[in-house]
Amino acid sequence: MTKVPTEFAAPISVANHRLDQRSPLYLDQLTTRTLLAKQGPSLGLWRAAEIAALREQRFEPPVLDLGGGDGLVTAMVLPQVEIAVEPDVIAVKQALQQELYQHFFTCPIETAPIPESSIATVVSNSVLEHIPNLDAALTAVVRILKPGGKLIFTTPTAAFSQWLALPSRRYAHWRNQQLCHLNLWSSDRWQTKLEQVGLRVESVRPYLRREWVSLWDGLELLQQIRFGQQRAFGRIWRQLPTSVIDALAHRLAGIDLAAPAPGGGQLIVARKPGGIDGDR
User: Fold this and answer.
1) Which of 21, 57, 97, 136 is most deeply packed, by most CB within 10 A?
2) pTM
3) Which residues, other chains included, contact 109 with Cβ-Cβ below 8 Å and sequence gap of 6+?
4) Is the pLDDT at 230 greater than 50, yes or no?
5) What domain count does the chain have?
């Protein structure tokens, strides 16, 4: 399992939920290299920004990971998580290898038998943009959060569609269909939605500038090219010498992954009112 730092930076909270755009965002070389080796250049780039942003936060236990998939990203942020909610049974089997989660629920969050007001932190990485019945999912999150508990999640922004490799609405529509994106929203729209279900937005952390989103999309398209049954780019990538992956990881680790608002992606922290920290 990938080692994660034993100490995390304090969560960033700012007035009217805007982060200081001057704050840089970096990911260490070891984690970056692991991402590139396991997930390739495009997904590795996007995950690097998400992990760097998530590591800025504090996660009060008990923690619930909503839609954590195979657990790889969460394992690079937290050493242990009490509960995972993941409907994909195959992903859960892969997540077991991380030795990260104490309990699994292989069902949607709406039907997971989790006691009311029992969770201090819900973390969700690039999941909420895919959920069809978002109101039901968010209502379930609010139900299980303790008073003062937090929802910490990452998601692509509304700008994502405009920053892809090809500046075409038709192309953006095709890509979002391909990626199963349903809820690509601005931070303001997220704030409205979260307030409707009873959560207060505390901070927003934009990441990935326009040029990085365009690069990500171009690399992602290259990885889809097939010769026969094999993806050509992936085959070449897996055969790259270790020294090349090391050099790429060193380069990526030196890149500031932060972005001015809106960014291609964003980390949002929202809190349930009540409790010592939630009475605001």
Assistant:
1) 57
2) 0.90
3) 66, 85, 137, 140, 141
4) yes
5) 1
